[in-house]
């Protein structure tokens, strides 16, 4: 077993009277996992989704990491069939605990480019 430490720091100043500072982390025990890269070949308007994580292979509490490697394309991430829940603009990323209730499917916004999506799946206890 290993420990995954996911940490997000956010510091904002000069927007409001009081500066905002956030430092949040989670450290679940990881039973298995890794990071791979997927190529998206179809856009939502022209083709079917690419399934990047199948719910049947994981349990509740799995931690998911997604990073859009494209410098120009946006990637839609669907966590519930038929609804985009996360929109990753170029170079954006997301880390979240996943309930493993449905597959995670993705589309690119443009079929002329084949953007890369980095996918991390960490089965946690």
Task: Please sum up the structure shown.
The protein is mainly β and 125 residues long. It has no helices and eleven strands. It has strands at 2-3, 6-12, 20-26, 29-39, 50-53, 62-68, 75-80, 83-88, 93-98, 104-108, 116-124.
Radius of gyration: 16 Å
Proportion of helical residues: under 10%
Quaternary structure annotation: single chain
Mean pLDDT: 83
Largest sheet: 5 strands, antiparallel
Describe the protein's architecture and organization.
This protein is an all-beta fold. The radius of gyration is 16 Å and the shape is globular. Strand 2 and strand 3 form a beta hairpin. The protein contains no helices and eleven strands. The protein starts with a strand and ends with a strand. Strands 1-4-11-6-9 form a five-stranded antiparallel beta sheet, with no helix packed on it. Strands 5-10-7-8 form a four-stranded antiparallel beta sheet, with no helix packed on it. It has a two-stranded antiparallel sheet with strand order 2-3. The mean pLDDT is 83. It has strands at 2-3, 6-12, 20-26, 29-39, 50-53, 62-68, 75-80, 83-88, 93-98, 104-108, 116-124.
Per-chain topology:
Layout: E1 2-3, E2 6-12, E3 20-26, E4 29-39, E5 50-53, E6 62-68, E7 75-80, E8 83-88, E9 93-98, E10 104-108, E11 116-124
Antiparallel strand pairs: 1-4, 2-3, 4-11, 5-10, 6-9, 6-11, 7-8, 7-10
What features would you highlight for this structure?
single chain; 125 residues; mainly beta; 5-stranded antiparallel beta sheet; 4-stranded antiparallel beta sheet; 11 strands
């Amino acid at each position: 077993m290993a420990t995954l430490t996911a940490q997000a720091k956010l510091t904002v100043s000069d927007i409001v009277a009081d500066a905002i500072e956030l430092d949040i982390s989670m450290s679940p025990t990881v039973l298995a996992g890794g990071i791979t890269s997927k190529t998206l070949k179809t856009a939502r308007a022209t083709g079917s989704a690419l399934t990047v994580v199948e719910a049947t292979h994981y349990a509740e509490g799995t931690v998911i990491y997604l990073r859009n490697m494209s410098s120009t394309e946006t990637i839609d991430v669907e966590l519930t069939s038929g609804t985009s829940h996360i929109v990753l603009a170029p170079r954006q990323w997301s880390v979240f605990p996943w309930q493993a209730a449905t597959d995670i499917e993705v589309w690119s916004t443009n079929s002329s480019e084949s953007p890369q999506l980095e996918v991390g799946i960490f089965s946690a206890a």
